[in-house]
Amino acid sequence: MNDLIAPTALWCATIIEAIGIGTITLFALYALFNAIIRMIRKEDSDSIFQELRQSLGRGILLGLEFLIASDIIYTVAVELTFETIGVLGIVVLIRTFLSLTLEVEMSGKWPWQNNQ
């Protein structure tokens, strides 16, 4: 049974990881393309910069969620050892910290604060 689960989980983790990388890449390219178009139109540079940062931040946040899911699948289903669980914990902690700081930077407040 494990001979079937591990390769399937590895395949799924690889696909989800590729989706995460693709998401970040596509959002970055879209945000950059949109900013260039707006610069050509001579729009306000401050609003262009803010929207570029917002779009890029959203893409990174979404991509990080996919990458975390991929790491969890790989660790739990393919290579379950105390060492890989420790590494997974550190990776998830770092990526969660990055997600939290990006969210704070984009919205200007902590996620648990009321929408005021």
Structure description:
It is a single chain. The chain is an all-alpha fold and about 120 residues long. The chain has one domain. The protein is about 85% helix and about 0% strand. The chain contains 3 helices and no strands. Helix 1 runs antiparallel to helix 2. The longest helix is centred in the N-terminal third of the chain and has 39 residues. About 10% of the residues are buried.
Keywords:
elongated, transmembrane helix, single chain, DUF1622 domain-containing protein, DUF1622, 3 helices, about 120 residues, mainly alpha, transmembrane
Structure described in brief:
The chain has about 120 residues and is mainly alpha-helical. About 85% of the residues lie in helices and about 0% in strands.
Percent of residues in helices comes to: over 70%
Structural domain tally: 1
> What is the C-alpha radius of gyration, as a whole number of Å?
18 Å
- Overall average pLDDT: 87
Structural class: mainly alpha
Low-confidence stretches: none
Biggest pleated-sheet summary: none
Tally of alpha and pi helices = 3
The beta-strand count equals 0
> What is the string of helix and strand elements?
HHH
Give the overall form.
elongated
**Could you give the distance between the termini?**
53 Å
Keywords: Membrane, Transmembrane, Transmembrane helix
InterPro entries: DUF1622 (IPR012427)
Pfam families: DUF1622
Protein name: DUF1622 domain-containing protein
